[in-house]
């Protein structure tokens, strides 16, 4: 047995096989070739090898998880014979004289994008399969070892570090837990782990060379430990504790369908935070009353180019439709700092958290912003969408946003494209926004307090810097006073105020938030039912001015 400890970002326990995650070396390199015939032959040979690998996987899965779960490997084998797919690869090699791996990568991306844009949910799901088979071909072409990358069944991901784009690209159905050598508890990867309800440890001082894909491990998010090659006794204990956790979760089921109302009658709107369309499932499963924060920037990362208006429209429309009339607050692009997209060429900055990010990019590059606003407005026809702007520091920024918003509205009107005017709010996540929240409240429909960034900027603690985790204290009185001040200023202008940062899910503060008059809490889907129970158990002896939320 090998045991290590680290910092837990989500409490939970799991026993399962390990996948050592190695981030693919940037992108597949494009090389000029002189012999297209040889490259095409290499693709054909790789196709045969890939089908053999898949057949082995099919047989293994058939024994271990049954026919219906094994069928996917048959589907992948068939996809590898798809004529359009193969012809597209061959023709790219011939016409552009590029290497086989590059042609497979580009074709895979194109086909995946095409599937993802289809209306039919089954076809959309095929996008991931196309990526999968293309990755398999590339690994074979590049002479990489199959086992190193195998995450065929559900497994615990062990990595040096994971960027938000790594995590967003993983098939969440296949992740049992995360263990990383680096990373900070306030990073977006940690946020994703909490959203997915899976045990996750960061800052684990292990030597990745000693860990092999396929090893068993127990991740214990309660005590912050991971044990590789556990003995029988530990496996039995882990299984027992997993059962107990399941039982606890079952008890929380009683909270489903209940209203989030305090004992003295204050109704809190309890929403969920999501990062992608597929996360809506987690929100609904946990009975969220709406989406309080859709981090739209995840549509922009882990890819090679900006998402088109149509792609974005489809994503927003789907979320709105799936939420069936419940509120869906979509935050506009909050990229920069830890969330990077190479194609945007944002450049290296000394202090990226204080740099060119979020609304600053949108205001400086209004074409990017306008594309998103057009997609958002078009999607308003399909549900109850609100728009929220991140990283606001000044009233002039809001005025500028509204000027751009007006231009987009006019363009849509001129073209006869229908939309409904959405509620528009801002995130309060900089000390500047808190201090002028009285002025900002006059301009917008609502506030949502981003305590993650508000803590970082107020306490001058980089939320990405693991060394500073002990200094990152969202309970600091400065933060609580700022939340109170923001709530008072919102209410004085008849606007509602919510919290969508991680602190919103802090059960030790639920009562205090209701006392401050917070109208909405938007939390990780896995926390919705726990927060509802805390709200129901809460008395508010001194109610502050309650507000109605539209
Ligand atoms: C926040 O800063 O609290 C927030 C919700 O936004 P993000 O974590 O995406 O920066
Ligand atoms: Mg933020």
Topology:
Blueprint: E1 2-5, E2 7-10, E3 13-20, H1 36-65, H2 67-79, H3 83-96, H4 100-116, H5 121-141, H6 146-149, E4 155-159, H7 164-169, E5 175-180, H8 188-195, E6 200-202, E7 216-220, E8 225-228, H9 232-252, E9 269-274, H10 280-285, E10 290-295, H11 309-322, E11 327-331, H12 359-364, H13 366-379, E12 384-389, H14 395-414, E13 424-428, H15 431-435, H16 437-443, E14 446-449, H17 451-459, H18 477-492, E15 496-499, H19 510-516, E16 520-523, H20 528-536
Parallel strand pairs: 3-4, 4-5, 5-6, 9-10, 9-16, 10-11, 11-12, 12-13, 13-14, 14-15, 15-16
Antiparallel strand pairs: 1-8, 2-6, 3-7, 7-8
Helix pairs in contact: 1-2, 1-3, 1-5, 3-4, 4-5, 11-13, 13-14, 16-18
Bound molecules: phosphoenolpyruvate and magnesium ion.
How many helices? 20
Structural class: alpha/beta
Q: What is the averaged pLDDT score?
A: 89
Shape: globular
Question: β content, as a range?
Answer: 5-15%
Rounded to the nearest angstrom, the radius of gyration is: 24 Å
**Strand segment tally:** 16
Q: Which regions have little confidence, pLDDT < 50, spanning 5+ residues? A: 542-550
Assign a percent range to the helix content. 40-55%
Ligands bound to this protein structure: phosphoenolpyruvate, magnesium ion
Major beta sheet, specifics? 8 strands, mixed
Report the end-to-end length measured between terminal Cα atoms. Answer: 55 Å
Strand order of the largest sheet: 1-8-7-3-4-5-6-2
Structure description:
The longest helix has 30 residues, at 36-65. With 550 residues, this protein is α/β, with parallel strands linked by helices. The protein contains 20 helices and 16 strands. Residues 542-550 have low confidence and may be disordered. Phosphoenolpyruvate is lined by residues 293, 295, 334, 429, 450-453, 500-501.
């Amino acid at each position: 047995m090998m045991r290590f400890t680290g910092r837990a970002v989500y409490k939970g326990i799991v026993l399962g096989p390990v996948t050592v995650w190695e981030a693919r070396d940037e992108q597949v390199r494009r090389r000029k070739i002189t012999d297209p015939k040889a490259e095409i032959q290499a693709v054909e040979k790789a196709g045969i090898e890939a089908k053999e690998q898949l057949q082995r996987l099919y047989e293994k899965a058939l024994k271990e998880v049954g026919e219906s779960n094994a069928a996917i490997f048959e589907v992948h084998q068939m996809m590898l014979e798809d004529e359009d797919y193969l012809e597209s690869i061959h023709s790219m090699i011939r016409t552009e004289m590029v290497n086989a791996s590059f042609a497979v990568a580009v074709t895979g991306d194109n086909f995946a994008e095409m599937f993802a844009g289809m209306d039919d949910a089954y076809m959309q799901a095929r996008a991931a399969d196309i990526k999968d088979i293309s990755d398999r071909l590339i690994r074979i072409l590049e002479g990489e070892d199959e086992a190193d990358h195998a995450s065929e069944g559900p497994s615990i991901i062990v990595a040096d570090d994971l960027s938000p784009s790594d995590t967003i690209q993983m098939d969440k159905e296949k992740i049992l837990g995360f263990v990383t050598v680096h990373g900070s508890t306030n990073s977006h990867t940690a946020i994703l782990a909490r959203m997915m309800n899976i045990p996750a440890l960061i800052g684990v001082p292990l030597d990745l060379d000693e860990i092999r894909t396929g090893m068993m491990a127990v991740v214990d998010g309660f005590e912050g430990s991971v044990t590789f090659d556990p003995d029988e006794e530990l496996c039995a204990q882990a299984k027992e504790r997993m059962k107990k956790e399941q039982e606890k979760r079952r008890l929380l089921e009683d909270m489903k369908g209940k209203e989030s109302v305090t004992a003295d009658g204050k109704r809190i709107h309890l929403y969920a935070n999501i990062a992608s369309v597929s996360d809506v499932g987690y929100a609904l499963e946990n009975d969220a009353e709406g989406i309080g924060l859709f981090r739209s920037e995840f549509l922009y990362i882990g890819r090679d180019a900006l998402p088109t208006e149509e792609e974005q429209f489809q994503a927003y429309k789907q979320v709105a439709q799936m939420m069936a009339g419940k509120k869906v607050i979509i935050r506009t692009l909050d990229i920069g700092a830890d969330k990077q997209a190479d194609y945007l060429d944002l450049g290296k900055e000394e202090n990226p958290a204080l740099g060119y990010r979020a609304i600053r990019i949108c205001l400086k590059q209004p074409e990017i912003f306008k594309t998103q606003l057009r997609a958002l407005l078009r999607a308003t026809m399909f549900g109850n969408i609100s728009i929220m702007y991140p990283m606001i520091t000044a009233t002039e920024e809001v005025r500028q946003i509204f000027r751009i918003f007006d231009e987009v509205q006019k363009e849509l009107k001129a073209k006869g494209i229908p939309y409904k005017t959405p509620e528009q709010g801002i995130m309060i996540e900089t000390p500047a926004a808190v201090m002028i929240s009285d002025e900002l409240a006059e301009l917008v429909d609502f506030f949502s307090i981003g305590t993650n960034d508000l803590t970082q900027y107020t306490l001058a603690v980089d939320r990405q810097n693991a060394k500073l985790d002990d200094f990152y204290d969202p309970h600091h009185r400065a933060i609580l006073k700022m939340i109170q001040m923001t709530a008072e200023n919102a209410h004085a202008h008849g606007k509602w105020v919510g919290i969508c940062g991680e602190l919103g899910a802090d059960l030790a503060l639920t009562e205090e938030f209701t006392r401050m008059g917070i109208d909405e809490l938007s939390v990780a889907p896995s926390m919705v039912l726990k927060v509802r129970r805390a709200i129901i158990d809460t008395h508010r002896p001194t109610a502050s001015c309650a507000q109605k939320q539209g």
